[in-house]
Design a protein that fits this description.
CATH architecture: 3-Layer(aba) Sandwich
Radius of gyration: 18 Å
Strand order of the largest sheet: 3-2-1-4-7-8-9
CATH class: Alpha Beta
Number of domains: 1
Distance between the termini: 52 Å
Largest sheet: 7 strands, parallel
Number of helices: 8
Structural class: alpha/beta
Shape: globular
Order of helices and strands: EHEEHEEEHEHHEHHHE
Helix content: 25-40%
Number of strands: 9
Length: 260
């Protein structure tokens, strides 16, 4: 019934990332930047994809300017990989705040379409093209070939006022997690999603100490905002824990968002 020995991926018992590549989108700042650095710390060859240039470049990371919604640009980025692609982390996204109706008028259709295009279509585009590359990998123990981690948000469950476009895009990412994992199971590729709560990114810090403290007070425990490196830790945990598949994990300190 039980295996005679634990399959060898790495010392921690998960997918061995040594001698492999990882693709991180939205890697110029915030969650993506923290994840790219954490993977580089593990000795992974990191391809960091973003439309924006990073404020600080890590010499261990290969930065590429590309649009996640552009098929040719993503394919060209993947073609630059020098070692097997074992991990993809989709962090690219936008978060507009527009009410359905306000004193400014009705929610414009262009903003909604753009949000869906970047957050959902961009994630799907990277997922499908990366999966094709991963499927050609030599299998590790249990036939594992790779892991794809997408980024949703607690707004997928408790979208706030002004977040209808954002919540729709993130809810769709949650919705495609399980069927994507089922589709790719035959190739040994896992798909999971992380749904962060409020993360202390540079953009949020710019709002001021009073706003940050107010937001932190709304989190049950720990009564603070999440840190980007904690998202990166969760990505690494998902790589180490190879029985987690088709799951969306909330990283929010038990926060449940109020209407506004």
């Amino acid at each position: 019934m039980y295996p005679k020995a634990v399959p060898r991926y790495c010392d921690s018992g998960g997918m061995d990332l040594s001698g492999s590549s990882a693709l991180v989108t939205g890697a110029a700042s915030g969650l993506g930047a923290a994840t790219a650095r954490a993977l580089a710390d593990r000795g992974v060859d990191v391809l960091a994809l973003d439309l924006a240039a990073p404020s600080e470049r890590d010499p261990r990371i290969h930065y590429v300017t590309a649009d996640v919604t552009d098929e040719e640009q993503v394919a060209a980025s993947l073609a630059q990989l020098a070692s097997p692609l074992r991990l993809v982390v989709n962090c690219a996204g936008i978060a507009p705040a527009v009410r359905l109706l306000s004193s400014k008028g009705v929610h414009d259709l262009a903003t909604f379409r753009r949000t869906i295009d970047v957050n959902l279509v961009g994630t799907f585009n990277v997922l499908r093209l990366a999966a094709e590359v991963m499927a050609a990998n030599d299998p590790l123990a249990d036939g594992a070939r790779g892991l794809i981690v997408n980024t949703a948000s607690v707004a997928a469950y408790e979208g706030q006022i002004g977040q209808v476009a954002y919540a729709a895009s993130k809810g769709a990412i949650v919705g495609m997690t399980l069927p994507a994992a089922r589709d790719l199971a035959r190739y040994g590729i896992r798909v999971n999603t992380i749904a962060p709560g409020i993360v202390l990114t540079p953009l949020l810090t710019a709002l001021g100490e009073q706003v940050v403290d107010s937001l932190a007070a709304s989190v049950p425990f720990p009564a603070r905002l999440a840190r980007p490196y904690e998202y990166a830790q969760l990505v690494l945990m998902l790589a180490d824990h190879d029985y987690l598949n088709g799951e969306t994990i909330r990283m929010d300190g038990a926060l449940r968002m109020a209407p506004q």
